[in-house]
Amino acid sequence: MSEPGVVVIIPAAGAGSRFGSELPKQFHMLGDRTILQRVIERFLSDERVELIVVPVSERALLNFGEQPSGRRVQFVNGGETRQESVTKGFEAAGMKKGIVAIHDGVRPFFSIDTFHKVIDAAVHYGAAFPAAPINDTLHVLDNDQIVDTPDRTRLFAAQTPQCFRADVLRDILARGAGGDATDEAGLAAKYGYVVKAVPGDKLNFKITRPEDLAIAERIFLEFGK
Known about the structure:
- This protein is α/β, with parallel strands linked by helices.
- The protein has one domain: Spore Coat Polysaccharide Biosynthesis Protein SpsA, Chain A (Alpha-Beta Complex).
- Helices cover about 35% and strands about 20% of the residues.
- It has helices spanning about 35-45, 60-65, 80-95, 110-125, 165-175, 185-190, 210-225, and strands at about 5-10, 30, 35, 50-55, 75, 100, 125-135, 140, 145-150, 155-160, 160-165, 195-200.
- Strands 1, 4, 5, 6, 7, 10, 11 and 12 form an eight-stranded mixed beta sheet that branches. The chain has a two-stranded antiparallel ribbon with strand order 2-3. It has a two-stranded antiparallel ribbon with strand order 8-9.
- Strand 4 (about 50-55), helix 2 and strand 5 form a beta-alpha-beta unit.
- The protein is globular, with a radius of gyration of 17 Å.
């Protein structure tokens, strides 16, 4: 049986307010390219990826201009929330079947090997995501005081790319319409789907604050990833 086609959606319309810059974090430079460009190029190196759809803000869309036909990358107008952007990206892809991967536009160091394992798990289970174990002790605080200490052996950090069969993603996006889910894997679990966890990678961190970009720059300089 042939491998299913894979479409990647990279929601990149956010303002990145936690980064503390007028320029959204995905458009900051990492080496001689933006973080978003690094992410796109990493996916383009994978032959299993048929199309990459990137929902961006209207202002950013104007800067990209018309994209030549036949390209594997398509920029579209995003939404006010991540969920709206994912929905618009999915609609633009026009998928009836196959696998859809959703990836944060500020995770430039994801592993292609892990990506393939998540794809394969999604083919079998319908939905899958990379999960990284939590090393630190976590406390729940109320008024700056500890009120609970969860068992960290059962806690995992959700990473991307998260992968879904097209029918599963279509259903959860329709049922969650108008919401503001920050994680499609959690949305799938909420609506009763089995979501398979695949071992993640600590290097696959999300650039959220300026100190994260500083770490990414050191990694890039040392390893050229």
